[in-house]
Predict the 3D structure of the following.
Amino acid sequence: MELDKLKSDFVSMVSHELKTPLTPMKTSAEFLLQNDPDLNVRREMLELIVRNIDRQTRMVNDMLDISRIESGNMRFRKEMQDMDEIINSAIETMKKQSEDKKINITTDIPTDLFKINADKDKLIQVFINLLSNALKFTPSGGNVEIKANESEKYVEVYVKDDGIGIPPDKIDKIFNKFYQIDSTSARLYGGSGLGLAITKSIVEGHGGTIRVESTPDEGSVFILTFLK
């Protein structure tokens, strides 16, 4: 019964998330068709349209990934990769979002960090998901840090934020499919709610693990561990 309710809530949320961007896109497109605004207004409206298209694209991609995970059809094309290059690619993708919220992203990654046998695009997706999550729940002017270290047997990467944190009774559930941390306040931040489930599946598909430590009102740190 609980799973059925989660799925039902998820379908309702997806319907809302897919429909919500349509209104501003349609309004902006109609305005541009009917008027000849100056360059700044035109650019602003086109950027709004692009942002909302990107939002819908992420939602559709998340649903496709979950479908592949559920059916066991998630495939990995692994080659030896530089972890710092993967992380920096994710940071560059999220640069505009972090700048818009005035959130500072810092890194502490050894330049000689051990290479990892990985699907580059999938691991970039992992860090994009974690950064997106951190940026959503960190207030304007906050900080997000990514650091990495290695031992003889494994590489660990930490994604830390000083955001709203996760209640202790929710931590064990946040990687579950269809699960939302909260149906009220957290939903104000939007998103599919699938990112962490997808992230966990990709990390485990690389033989790794992911866990989270969090304190409400102080922030969270996601810890990824990969065997050498």
